[in-house]
C-alpha cells in the first residue's frame, strides 16, 4: 500500500558522499557507457567528489566515505526500488513505471549548476521527450527539491511523464549505481534493460538523442 511519509527536516545523510558537480579540468568530459561497455565492470575507488567552486550554494569538497552495499557497476536492468514523490510523499516503485516506453533516471543534486543547466535545456525541448518516462531522483532534503522544476525547468513541472522522486533509503546507490559526477543519466529501454548512461553534463542534443533512441 502506498503511504505518505513525514519529510525529515534534514534528510541528507549522503550529501557529503556525493558532489553537486565536478568542475575539475576534466569536468567538460562526460563518461558515457553502453550496457555492453559496462557489463561486469566496476569503477576503481577514489572518485573525484569535489564541489564546483563557482556555485555559491555548494559546500566545500568532501571525500566520499567508504560505503558498503553500494553498486559500482550500473544496473543492467531496472532494479526493484522504493522512492517517494516529492509533491505528495506517495511511494513510487518499479511497478509504477508506465510500460512500453524508454525510462530515464536522472540522479542529481538541486544545488548542482550542471544539473540546473541540463534541466533548463531539457525543459525547453520537452516536446521531444514527452513520450519518455523521466524520473529525477535525489537523496537531498525534499524541501530543496520541491521548487527545482519551477526554478530551472518550468516546462517539466506537472507533466505526466516527469516525476521528482526522493530517495529516502539510499536505494539508488545500493541498487542502481554510484556515479562520480552529477547529473548522472541512466537510459533504460521499454524492456527495462540498460541502453546507456553517462555522468556529467553534455550537449542537450546528445541527451535527447540518447533518451529517445
TrEMBL record:
Residues 56-66 have a biased composition (Low complexity). Residues 28-52 have a biased composition (Basic and acidic residues). Residues 53-213 form the Thioredoxin domain. InterPro entries: AhpC/TSA, Thioredoxin-like_sf, Thioredoxin_domain. Keywords: Signal. Residues 24-66 are annotated as: Disordered. Pfam families: AhpC-TSA. GO terms for molecular function: antioxidant activity; oxidoreductase activity. Residues 1-20 form the signal peptide. Coiled coil: none annotated. This is Redoxin domain-containing protein.
Amino acid at each position: 500500500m502506498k503511504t505518505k511519509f513525514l519529510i525529515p527536516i534534514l534528510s541528507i545523510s549522503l550529501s557529503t558522499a556525493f558532489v553537486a558537480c565536478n568542475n575539475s579540468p576534466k569536468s567538460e568530459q562526460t563518461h558515457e557507457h553502453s550496457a555492453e561497455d559496462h557489463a561486469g565492470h566496476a569503477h576503481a575507488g577514489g572518485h573525484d567528489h569535489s564541489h564546483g567552486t563557482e556555485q555559491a550554494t555548494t559546500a566545500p569538497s568532501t571525500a566520499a566515505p567508504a560505503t558498503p552495499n553500494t553498486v559500482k557497476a550500473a544496473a543492467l536492468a531496472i532494479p526493484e526500488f522504493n522512492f517517494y514523490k516529492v509533491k505528495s510523499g506517495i511511494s513510487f516503485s518499479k511497478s509504477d513505471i508506465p510500460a512500453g516506453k524508454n525510462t530515464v533516471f536522472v540522479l542529481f543534486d538541486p544545488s548542482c549548476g550542471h544539473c540546473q543547466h541540463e534541466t533548463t535545456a531539457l525543459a525547453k525541448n520537452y516536446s521531444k521527450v514527452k513520450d519518455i518516462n523521466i524520473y529525477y531522483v535525489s537523496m537531498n532534503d525534499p524541501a530543496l527539491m520541491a521548487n527545482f522544476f519551477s526554478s530551472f525547468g518550468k516546462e517539466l513541472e506537472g507533466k505526466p511523464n516527469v516525476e521528482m522522486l526522493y530517495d529516502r533509503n539510499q536505494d539508488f546507490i545500493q541498487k542502481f549505481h554510484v556515479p562520480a559526477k552529477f547529473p548522472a543519466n541512466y537510459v533504460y529501454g521499454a524492456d527495462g534493460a540498460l541502453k546507456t548512461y553517462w555522468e556529467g553534463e553534455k550537449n542537450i542534443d546528445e541527451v535527447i538523442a540518447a533518451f529517445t533512441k
